[in-house]
Amino acid sequence: MLLRSAVVSLLLVAPTLAAECPSMLQGELPKLRSKDRIDLCEQFAGKPLLVVNTASFCGFTPQFKGLEALYQRYKGQGLEVLGVPSDDFKQESDDAEETAKVCYVDYGVTFSMSQTQPVTGAQAIPLFKELAAQSQAPRWNFSKYVVDRQGRVVASFSSRTLADDPELIAAVEKAIASAP
């Protein structure tokens, strides 16, 4: 009887959870240097989010340092950052361990990082298809998307935009201030 009650409760709650999770966050990504997966809804739904497509061998790779500083500055206010390595622009390693070394050892990244994923064109993962639909597809590595608590892109920025850029910070603060 207890099991039946739990199943009925789960069936009643599951549609509510799916309805509360924005479409762009419905799915999972493999976590960098791990067998674990990042459940996008579980980890990011209802939170302000900065999504960045990254690459280990790009001239913009030093931006990891600024992105980490931004994350540390705002994580206490709920900001999440998701880095998604991609080889779409031919500047990411085929070796996940090498990618992890660049992120975690060379730049001290503590925010969430997925394994390498396609982020442009027909092969793009659903998250990046939705980001592109709401703004534009990445034109290069380190494109940045600020997403509010409802899963809406409030701003997107080019690769050249640094993490301490006043416009990016204003967009992050707007996303943080958005109602859950």
TrEMBL record:
SUPFAM superfamilies: Thioredoxin-like
UniProt signal peptide: 1-18
Any GO molecular function: peroxidase activity
Family: Belongs to the glutathione peroxidase family.
Name this protein carries in UniProt: Glutathione peroxidase
Keywords from the UniProt entry: Oxidoreductase, Peroxidase, Signal
Catalytic machinery residues: 58
Gene Ontology terms: biological process: cellular response to oxidative stress
Annotated InterPro entries: Glutathione_peroxidase, GPX_AS, Thioredoxin-like_sf, Thioredoxin_domain
Domain Thioredoxin: 8-177
Native organism: Pseudomonas borbori
